[in-house]
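Batch manifest, entry 17 of 40.
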Amino acid sequence: MERKTDKLERVFTYLFLLLYGVGTAGHLIDFFKNIMLTLTPYVLFGTSAILIYLLLKDFAKANFIWLTVIYSVTLLIEIAGVKTGYIFGSYYYGDVLGVKLFEVPLVIGLNWVMVLAGVIVLINNIKTNVHLKSIIVGLLAVVFDLVLEPAAINLGYWNWSGGEIPAQNYAAWFLIAVFSSYFYSFIKANINIKLFSYYYFIQLFFFLLLNLFYL
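Output type: C-alpha cells
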C-alpha cells in the first residue's frame, strides 16, 4: 500500500516539473522573461518550503539539525564571501533573487540545502565508506555549479568581478559539499525523500537547457 508521503512526493514531483517546464519556456520567450525573473525567488522559496515540509512531516531531530546548520553555515559563508572575496572569489549579487541579508539573498542558503540534500539522497544507497561518499557529493555539487554559473550570470543572479569565474569558486563548492556530507553522517541524519534528488536534476536540466537554447 502506498504511503501518504509517497503520494505527496509524486504530486509535488509533477508540480516541480510543471513549474520548471513553464519556467524554461518562459525564459526562452522574450515577452515572458521579466515575469520569470520576477517570479524566481518565489519559486525557489516555494519549492524549498515544500521540500522542508516533507522533511519535517515525519520529524527527525538529526534531519532538522542538518538542515538548520547547513542553511546557517552556507548563508554565513556567502556573506563572508561577498564581503571579503576570499572564499569563492570576488562577486556580488544582483536583485533577481529577492530579499537580502548583508548583500546576500536569503534564498541562497535554502538552495544550498536543497542541492546538497539532493546529492546526498541520490547516493544514499551506494555501498561505500563515508569518505568516498563525501567526495562524490563534492564532485556532484561542483557539476551542478558548472552548469549553474553561465545561466546565473546571464540572468543577473550574481556577477563576478573581472567577468571570469575563479577556480577557487569550484574548490569552495567542493569543500562545502564535502563538509555537509561528513556532518550528515556524523549526526546520523537520514533523509529518505526522493524528491530532493529529483529536484537536483530538475534544476540541473533547467539551467542546462537555458545554457543551450537561450544564453
